[in-house]
Design a protein that fits this description.
Strand content: 15-25%
Oligomer: single chain
Structural class: alpha/beta
Radius of gyration: 21 Å
Order of helices and strands: HEHHEHEHEHHEEHHEHEHEHEEH
Distance between the termini: 28 Å
Shape: globular
């Protein structure tokens, strides 16, 4: 009887914000987000990174950074922002803006690993990540091409997918960071079905779409034109769509990639499953600019991020827009509220 009355403790609504690569615009857009009362009001945030990097950016950009130190053994405040040191203090010199390398990659990696540990330990409900530099990560010894694959590994997630959510368009990728020539070989009906199922679940749970309508794009021009322009659409994509419909999902396709995004924009679909990275991102970034939010599906916790890179060419100049970072934080908070 007592076990029935025992309630599991509520998970905190806190979110972790990672520094990103400190040689890029990551610290700048985090500082600008923290300085915006609309972005932080009423929220519990843990900023994860290296204090020396944030202090240097704060002085250079003249944006205050006054967060008090916090570590996982301490209770989290119900609201407001605190700082969690991810790297051993002084181990790495503060990188110069616009000069990414092994040191900046290691500092960025430490922040991601520390934030993932907070999420895995139930101390935060999710993370919002500033951009990282893939080459700097490689030089630092990180064997992953980006956040998505890396966070799936750190969380022990079997299935994962990359979704981009904008005000006008939502897309999810069947393949992520692979060369275009490898896309047909990487595509499988099972993989496309899995991504479609993850997207359907996310639309219901995190976006409040009661009956998602999902379009599945073809991989070839004109969705293969009945095999005249490639066989993958009828041999791989079509079976995935049929299996999705057999499971009760309102999935349609394969649909030509040159018109499916327009149809979604006009309201025919809630989301498009794209076959490869640039098929989706060309449409999203044209429509949304930097307002779209990168969401990792399949993790046991929330992860959102900006839809742009480290912008090393403007790092340290104080002109980087924090619009994408604020959008990523807002969406993560909305998702946390629904969960």
């Amino acid at each position: 009887m007592a076990s029935r009355l025992t309630r599991a403790p509520r998970r905190p609504a806190a979110l972790a914000l990672t520094m990103g690569d400190p040689a890029g615009i990551g610290p700048e857009i985090v500082l600008k987000t923290l300085a915006d009362p609309r972005a932080v009001r009423g929220r519990a945030l843990v900023v994860v990174g290296d204090r020396a990097c944030f202090t240097a950016a704060s002085r250079q950009l003249r944006i205050p950074f006054r967060l008090r130190d916090w570590h996982p053994e301490l209770p989290l405040p119900p609201r407001g922002a605190v700082f969690c040191q991810a790297s051993p203090p002084g181990r790495h010199a503060v990188p110069r803006p616009g000069r990414p390398g092994a040191a900046s990659g290691r500092l960025a990696a430490d922040a991601v690993v520390a934030a993932a540990a907070l999420c895995n330990g139930g101390l935060t409900l999710g993370m919002v990540t500033a951009p990282i530099n893939k080459d700097a990560l490689r030089r630092a010894g990180v064997p992953y091409l980006g956040h998505t694959e890396w966070l799936a590994h750190l969380s022990g997630s079997r299935a994962h997918a990359m979704l981009f959510a904008g005000r006008q368009l939502k897309v999810v990728l069947a393949t992520i960071h692979v060369p275009l020539r490898e896309v047909p070989r990487r595509l499988t009906a099972t993989g496309i079905l899995e991504v479609t199922r993850l997207a359907h679940a996310a639309l219901v749970r995190d976006f409040g779409v009661r009956r998602p309508r999902i379009a599945v794009a073809g991989v070839n021009p004109h969705a293969g034109e009945s095999g005249l322009l490639g066989d993958e659409d009828r041999s791989v994509v079509l079976p995935a769509v049929r299996r999705a419909r057999a499971l009760g999902l309102d999935a349609h396709g394969p649909l030509p990639g040159d018109t499916v995004f327009r149809r979604a924009l006009e309201g025919a679909f809630d989301l498009v499953v794209a076959m490869y990275h640039d098929q989706a991102l060309a449409a999203v970034k044209t429509l949304e600019g930097f307002r779209a939010v990168n969401v990792t599906l399949g993790l046991p916790w929330i992860r959102t991020s900006v839809d742009h890179g480290t912008a090393d060419d403007i790092a340290g100049r104080g002109i980087a827009s924090a619009e994408g970072m604020r959008a990523a934080l807002d969406l993560a908070a909305e998702m946390a509220g629904r969960r």
